[in-house]
């Protein structure tokens, strides 16, 4: 018996080079702006994107790298470094980023599952190829907005349009 295949995100096995580049750019900007600007709030951007498009491991890796490098900047800045608050800030920043990574990855997983479920359900609907109406349980055709037509069906109106002419001319 085969395992049911789970929805496979397109980019899961790849390395997020673009996001790592973005992280490097953000770290460079942070370095230029110096210790008094709270630029690290933007560190959430590559972390969220990595968690959404890749996986939580990449997101956590990027989060830890950014928080860690930020910590090292203090020595280059000649900032009056007090090791204890700087360490605490780094730990808090890393924890918040990891939390964001986890929540984003979880939301992405839920969205992928729901999207797959909706596609499965839509595939089972009796949808008219011509105008997109669906046939209800009572046999009546109802409009429900735009749905992809996957069944080989025509509602009576579209059948008339499609084949009525052939019946007349043929
Ligand atoms: Zn129709």
Automatic annotation (TrEMBL):
Bilayer-crossing regions: 20-44, 56-76, 91-111
Q: Has keyword Membrane?
A: yes
Q: Which UniProt keywords apply?
A: Membrane, Transmembrane, Transmembrane helix
UniProt-recorded name of the protein: Uncharacterized protein
């Amino acid at each position: 018996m085969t395992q049911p295949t789970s929805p496979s995100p397109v980019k899961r096995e790849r390395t997020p080079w673009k996001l790592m580049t973005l992280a490097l750019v953000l770290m460079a900007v942070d370095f230029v702006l110096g210790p008094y600007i709270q630029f690290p709030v933007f560190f959430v951007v590559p972390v969220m994107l990595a968690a959404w498009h890749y996986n939580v491991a990449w997101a956590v890796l990027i989060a830890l790298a950014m928080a860690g490098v930020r910590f090292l900047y203090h020595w280059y800045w000649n900032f009056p470094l007090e090791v204890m608050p700087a360490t605490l800030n780094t730990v808090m920043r890393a924890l918040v980023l990891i939390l964001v990574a986890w929540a984003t990855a979880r939301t992405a997983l839920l969205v992928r599952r729901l999207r797959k479920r909706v596609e499965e359900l839509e595939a089972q609907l009796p949808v008219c190829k011509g105008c997109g109406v669906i046939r209800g349980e009572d046999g009546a055709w109802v409009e429900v907005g735009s749905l992809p037509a996957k069944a080989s069906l025509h509602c009576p109106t579209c059948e008339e349009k499609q084949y009525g002419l052939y019946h007349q001319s043929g």
